[in-house]
Amino acid sequence: SKVNAAVYQDILEHFMLPAADQLYGDADFIFQQDLAPAHSAKATSTWFKDHGIPVLNWPANLPNLNPIENLWGIVKRKIRYARPNNAEELKATIRATWALVTPEQCHRLIDSMPCHIAAVIQAKGAPTKY
């Protein structure tokens, strides 16, 4: 289905909150997202405020600084040769492949962010090799 603000908030409620609780416990964290319409909707901003979750201010169209884009790239490369026959098989393939992503891969992406930030600053916001 299309992800609108209500669907996105449901995902946040049922998946992000439990994951954040597991990862951070009572520690503070800042949530990062892009400016997709469901993310930038007033209702979604209200949801974050109501849950006391700060959201990183994010410029439009800047995938250079979004580790999830690189993570999706990993998943896409892993499923490149899969040949699902229908939408359900595609979804199952994506879920199975996503489950193979290791915490170490995620940490490497996070640890690479200072280099990405420095490259964007050096390029004055223009595209970089990342």
Separation of termini? 30 Å
Helix content: 55-70%
Give the biggest sheet. none
Give the ordered list of helices and strands: HHHHHHH
Q: Indicate the radius of gyration in whole angstroms.
A: 16 Å
Structural class: mainly alpha
Range of strand content: under 5%
Residue runs with pLDDT of under 50 for 5 or more positions: none
Shape: globular
Mean pLDDT: 89
> How many individual helices?
7
Tell me the number of strands.
0
What are the key terms here?
130 residues, mainly alpha, 59% helix, globular
Q: How is this structure best described in words?
A:
Residues 3-91 form the Tc1-like transposase DDE domain. It comes from Cirrhinus mrigala. InterPro entries: RNaseH_sf (IPR036397), Tc1-like_DDE_dom (IPR038717). This is Tc1-like transposase DDE domain-containing protein. It holds the Pfam family DDE_3. Helices cover 59% and strands 0% of the residues. It is built from seven helices and no strands. The longest helix has 20 residues, at 5-24. It is globular. It has helices at residues 5-24, 37-40, 42-50, 67-78, 87-99, 103-111, 113-122. The chain is mainly α.
Quick description:
This protein is 59% helix and 0% strand. With 130 residues, the chain is mostly helical.
Which helices and strands, and how do they pair?
Elements (H helix, E strand, L loop, with lengths): L4 H20 L12 H4 L1 H9 L16 H12 L8 H13 L3 H9 L1 H10 L8
InterPro entries: RNaseH_sf (IPR036397), Tc1-like_DDE_dom (IPR038717)
Organism: Cirrhinus mrigala (Mrigala)
Protein name: Tc1-like transposase DDE domain-containing protein
